[in-house]
Design a protein that fits this description.
By secondary structure, this protein is α+β, with helices and mostly antiparallel strands. The protein has helices at about 5-15, 20-30, 35-55, 80-85, 90-100, 105, 120, 135-150, 195-215, 225-240, 245-265, 280-290; strands spanning about 60-70, 70-80, 115, 125, 135, 155-160, 165-180, 180-190, 295-305.
Length: about 325
């Protein structure tokens, strides 16, 4: 017994949109059996559904990385549950937005890592799978909300271009759900004329270190002044309890600030990937000698799913 025309339309609509069967039936009824009009009806319905769910918290999800010859993009897409973050529809959406966000790398002239404006992300055109044309990222997310039944938030994205003077960008994904997509991603930009393959290996190891050590800043000069002042104030109060002279207390505070820098500044952190290698600055100096060309760590980014939005995650 053959499949009825109505059943075939429902099957095709589900294949094209991944919408629930009942919604496909409703969409085809509203569109008088016109498949393209039914797809549009579901999109509009998806937007309405997204508005209802937009107020719900979304602190799970995934971080995804995409790269090409110009650089890379690290992007965070949030969901309400870890379960949805493992879904194929979610993965396809995250990967597509990240891949298309590479246009910000190719179209930009800035060096070092910088975040992409969220409004620009929402207005990013994405290809319509199997349909031709494009759809805005905000609309694609709304449709995914309808399909997955959870609020989704395109939270942030960061561009890391390949240094203009030569070098590489590379990344490491920790707790991966799929290739290039997981709970924590770190990426680095290395400026050098050294062999690209050797730089890639070094960069991957540095990204692994960054995932584990969670630095906040690249160098002392980039430490946020308010953060430094707050730390200095706490250390001064702690040292004052000793009752020692002000000059001695000042020296005590400066000594303790050295420990603070080793915790938050990447170049001063002890390198985790290799025992007895010293701090990261020493690792870069040794690499410069071994590779026969100076190697400079130009910038890094570290994203972890759901971390405090106010945290400094790029330097």
């Amino acid at each position: 017994m053959g499949t009825s025309p109505k059943t075939a339309l429902i099957k095709e609509l589900r294949a094209r949109t991944s919408a629930p069967m009942k919604k496909c039936v409703d969409a085809l009824a509203a569109a008088d059996g016109d498949l393209d009009a039914a797809v549009d009806w579901l999109r509009k319905s998806g937007v309405a559904t997204a508005h209802k769910k937009a107020g719900r918290g979304a602190n799970e999800g995934a971080v995804v990385v995409a790269s090409d010859e110009a650089g890379l993009v690290v992007l965070e897409l949030n969901s309400e549950t870890d379960f949805v973050a493992r879904n194929g529809i979610f993965h396809e959406l995250a990967n597509t937005v990240a891949k298309e966000s590479l246009s910000f790398v190719r179209g930009g002239s800035r060096s070092g890592p910088y975040e992409i404006d969220r409004a620009a992300l929402a207005a990013l055109p994405l290809p319509r799978v199997g349909e031709g044309g494009t759809v805005l990222a905000s609309e694609a997310i709304s449709m995914a909300v309808s399909q997955l039944g959870e609020n989704l938030v395109l939270r942030r994205a960061c561009v890391l271009p390949i240094p203009a003077e030569g070098g590489v960008v590379t990344s490491y994904v920790h707790n991966a759900y799929a290739p290039g997509l997981g709970r924590t991603v770190a990426a680095v930009a290395l400026r050098s004329q050294a062999d690209p393959a050797a730089l890639q290996a070094l960069g991957t190891n540095l990204a692994m270190h960054i995932v584990a050590a969670a630095p906040r800043y690249l160098s002392r000069g980039q430490v946020d002044q308010a953060h430094l002042d707050r730390e200095r104030s706490v250390l001064t109060e702690q040292a004052a309890v000793s009752g020692k002279p002000a000059a001695t207390i000042e020296k005590m505070v400066e000594g303790r600030l050295g420990k603070f820098y080793k915790e938050v500044v990447l170049l001063e952190q002890e390198y985790i990937v290799e025992d007895k290698a010293g701090d990261v600055s020493k690792v870069l100096k040794k690499a410069s000698t071994d590779l026969g060309a100076e190697v400079t760590l130009e910038g890094f980014v570290r994203y972890h799913v759901g971390e405090d939005a106010e945290a400094e995650s790029i330097q």
